[in-house]
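Continuing the batch. This is chain 6 of the set; chains 1 through 5 are on the previous pages. Same settings as before, nothing changed between runs. Recording input and output for traceability.
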Amino acid sequence: MKALTVRWSLADAPAGVEERLASYVADSSHARFTGMDGLRFKTWRMRPGEWFEGCYVFATDEARAAFQRSFSEGAAESPGSQIVGSSPVLIEECDVVAVAEGADGFLAAPRY
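Output for chain 6:
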């Protein structure tokens, strides 16, 4: 599967940015990507004070390339960039080799 990682640095972000990012994901971003054509799944990850990241996994290379092209064109104005106060420090393609679902099952939720 074809994936894309988008990462923002939080090193110089304003105080409280982690809560603002979590609220943004719960209030709008999760819904935007739920059911998106060509997307298998997206995860949002964060290390407070260090980085915030979206990891997108697509059904095809074409779907990933189209999303990457569109996102990259407006990355500086994206909601994540607006909240963090800077553009992503990394937009990187990768391959997902495998995905395993544990015994407790997969739980899709706008906030944990």
